[in-house]
Amino acid sequence: MEVTKRADAEASTDTGTESNPRNPVCSLRHFAYEQNLLSRPDGSASFLQGDTSVLAGVYWPAEVKVSKEIFNKATLEVILRPKTGLPGVAEKSREQLIRNTCEVVVLGALHPRTSITVVLQVVSDAGSLLACCLNATCMALVDAGVPMRALFCGVSCALDSDGNLVLDPTTKQEKEAQAILTFALDNVEQKLLMSTTKGLYSDAELQQCLAPAQAASHHIFCFYRESLQRRCSKS
Q1: SS3 letters for 70-110?
Q2: Tens digit of each residue's pLDDT (9 = 90 or more) over 55-105
Q3: pLDDT score of 27 more than 70
Q4: Backbone angles phi and psi of 87, in degrees to 5
Q5: Which end of the chain is less enclosed by CB atoms within 10 A, N or C?
Q6: pLDDT on residue 95
Q7: Residue ranges of E strands in 125-175
């Protein structure tokens, strides 16, 4: 991925949610993002959650190989590059989950027989990597002007052996967790677009995680909206 920064890059930060005094772990880490920072892609964004950071570039509309061409919609491709080394099984799995989420919201029928390619580079992984990838992807798609029916965000949750919930867990919290759940939600109806889980949990614990994740998504979408409004006011 081209790493030359644009001089007109837009940055925005947020200090995260306020902790609930009855459940101090149900809060989001500090997060920030920067758009329009790469010169080669048609849109780009970096997203930071705590010490987890992902850089995303979007290339569209572009020609698509005949073998991948879809006659009635755009072909969506997601490439996830780890911080070091070559992509493995974990990266391929995350690519599929991100692509599935994008296909729900991107209005690909407006640009048939073209390709939309999202390239993600992991800068640092300190927990909740998939959620950070989803957030970076959404902001990069917006920066590229890709038409979407809704914005989306990712929220991760961890459950420990006592059933305690941690939103936006760190790597240490993930290692200590009995289960890790990541949700992708839209900003129109807070509809669940995608979910992936690892570990042991009950149906009741799934619902226990989903409700706080939806509440957290509202905060992230407010951050999106306020940041985009500030950007528009400057242009």
Answers
A1: CCCCCEEEEEEECCCCCCCHHHHHHHHHHHHHHHHHECHHH
A2: 999 999 888 888 888 999 999 999 999 999 999 999 999 999 999 999 999
A3: yes
A4: -60, 140
A5: C
A6: 98
A7: 152-159, 165-167
Grouping H, G, I as helix, E, B as strand and the rest as coil, residue 177 is coil
| pLDDT of 10 | 59
Q: pLDDT digits over 96-153, tens only?
A: 999 999 999 999 999 999 999 999 999 999 999 999 999 999 999 999 999 999 999 9
167 near 155, Cβ under 8 Å?
Answer: yes
User: Shortest CA distance to 53 belongs to which of 152, 132, 170?
Assistant: 132
Eight-state DSSP code of residue 161: T
Nearest to 50 by CA among 18, 11, 16: 16
In the three-class reduction of DSSP (H, G, I as helix; E, B as strand; rest coil), residue 189 is classed as coil
Say whether 219 sits in a helix, a strand or coil: helix
Helix axes 89-105, 129-144, angle to 10 degrees: 40
Residue closest to 35 by CA, chosen among 143, 195, 185, 134: 143
**C-alpha–C-alpha distance, residues 172 and 175, integer Å:** 5
CA-based end-to-end distance of the chain: 26
* Three-class SS of 45-72: EEEEECCEEEEEEEEEEECCCHHHCCCC
The three-state secondary structure class of 9 is coil
Q: Is 151 helix (H, G, I), strand (E, B) or coil?
A: coil
Pairing state between β 115-124 and 75-81: parallel
- For the record, the structure tokens of 169 come out as 């867990």
